[in-house]
Amino acid sequence: MKILVVHRQKLVADQIKSVLHDNSPVVIHTDSGLDGLLTSRIESFDLIICGTDLPVITGFELVRSVRTNSVNKNVPVIFIADQVDAKTEHLGNALGVIGMLLTQDVDDRLPGIVQNNVKAEPDRIWQDIVSKSGLN
Fold this sequence. Notes:
Blueprint: E1 2-6, H1 10-19, E2 26-30, H2 33-42, E3 47-51, H3 59-68, E4 77-81, H4 86-94, E5 99-102, H5 106-117, H6 126-133
């Protein structure tokens, strides 16, 4: 499973990789919304996980742009935020995200959301592709 994690903290990307270790994830991390957007426009992913409060472009703007103009327009997206309020939920639902997690709930809730909503491309061996490209 190839996952794009767009979050300010590399530690969160490492945590996601650890929590989803049963899925043998290849995790590509970017720390700004702009870098995440550019990466999502040129590479295919099985899942995008992003923070809502990102530098340059917010997570909401990133997902809106991915949904309208990207090779990943139908890829499941999960938001991670320090707080999930009514506005965050409303924007997430409008953008069609499959889940909104508090940062502290990643360990408990992320595996279930991924198992129920994400289907990795079965005919690609992402680790081989990434290791040959030098991306990670």
